[in-house]
Specification:
Hypothetical Protein Pfu-838710-001; alpha+beta; ten-stranded antiparallel beta sheet; 171 residues; 10 strands
Length: 171
């Protein structure tokens, strides 16, 4: 069965981590990355994703159901090369989003804890359809705000938490 993501805004990861630990889940994959989202009309996404050991261009398109599908992904040498690629495609501004996350495998899915720009804490439940509500209840987040706008850059922009910069100034 195909997994789907459900995102929640939370105030604190500590009670979630305590609950996961009590259930026997251990932290798994951890990652720190910076995403340079090109300022584009509409909701499609073009971005440079920089990890400590690699840098890539990601293109995502919004589908009819408001879901996002990765349509292209390819490596670039570094952030500067990625920003130059964006500039060469006609983009003039980017918004920077720093992400730290830790994944926990539990009950046939993933629980992801995401710190976004140090301003937003987000829980992502990656489970088959129909399992999200039960997992939210298990983790004590059933009353938390659902993040319905999938890309974090759009969510942050709607709340006035992004400051686009000219690509030229970053090169």
């Amino acid at each position: 069965m195909k997994h789907q993501e459900q995102k929640y805004r939370v105030d604190n990861f500590d009670p979630i981590v305590q609950k996961l630990t009590s259930l026997g889940a251990q932290p798994g994959h951890e990652s720190t990355s910076t995403h340079y989202y090109a300022v584009v009309p509409g909701n499609d996404v073009v971005k440079v994703v920089a990890h400590a050991d690699q840098c890539e261009i990601h293109k995502l398109s919004e589908t009819d159901g408001g879901k996002f599908v990765l349509t292209d992904r390819f490596p670039v040498a570094d952030v500067k090369a990625g920003l130059k690629w964006l500039k060469d495609q006609g983009y003039t501004q980017v918004s920077s989003v720093a992400m730290r996350h830790t994944d926990y495998e539990y009950a046939g899915g993933l629980v992801g804890l995401y710190d976004i720009n140090g301003e937003l804490k987000s829980l992502i439940l990656d489970y088959p359809a129909g399992k999200h509500d039960a997992m939210a209840q298990t983790l004590g987040v059933e009353g938390a705000e659902h993040i319905e706008v999938p890309p974090y850059n759009i969510y942050l922009e709607q709340r006035g938490l992004l400051n686009p910069a000219d690509i030229e100034a970053l090169l």
